[in-house]
Input
Amino acid sequence: MEVVIQQDPDKVCKYAAQVVAEQLSRKPASVLGLAAGSSQLGLYRELIRMHKEDGLDFSKVNTFNLDEYAGLPPEHPCSYHTVMSRNFFDYINIPRANIHIPDGMSDDIPAECQRYEAAMRELGGIDLEMLGVGADGHIGFNEPSSSLGSRTRLKMLTEKTRYDNSRFFASFDEVPRHVITMGVGTIMDSRMVMLIAFGKQKADVVSKLIEGPVTAMVPASVIQFHPRAKVIIDEAAAQKLKLKQYYKWAFEQKPKWQGL
Ligand code: GLP
Output
């Protein structure tokens, strides 16, 4: 795992956007896995800027979002369909047909989950999966105790996650209890994973996922098993890492030929 420590959230997002741009320059028809948490918004802003100012091209890109609330219509202001359009897709040149988000309104959720997995396979799998992390260690909406081999499926949110996400909703009661999420195994099939996190409120979970034991109780810790995992965090989120100085030193000494 490569740990990249940047000074502040802005620099985390800019660095992460460069990783995406490097991926697209290597493979313009990349399949990107996307997250809809608030940590990703600065990354999307920077990618939009690169699209507008530097011509970063998304015309051949396909995207798969990690998750969606079950029972929220796509036009609901808090659905991840809306969050993604308003913060990213409306401002880049990705064809609508190339955007994939689970259908939270499906009346056959198991079939929808299978369809989603099949669509990823048909496009050759995810090249770069972008991740955030919940305070309880969830990735996508894989809450603690999720099987580390799980595939796309219906999950029940913990009350903690419902509470954390209630800041986007009119009230706590409006936050759905069920979601469709890629599984931990689905995420691990990606060729590369890039997790970003910032702020002191994420310092505990960041130290657990990087330096703690791999456990279903911290689903994000499974990326320790991924052959190409990059974690990009700011100083505040890095403050509890035992090997913080080593990660910084390794980053400074990184050979140029390795790219980002
Ligand atoms: C949300 C999303 C995750 C996200 C995480 C952290 O519930 N389903 O994909 O990574 O929780 O969110 P934030 O970035 O807002 O802290």
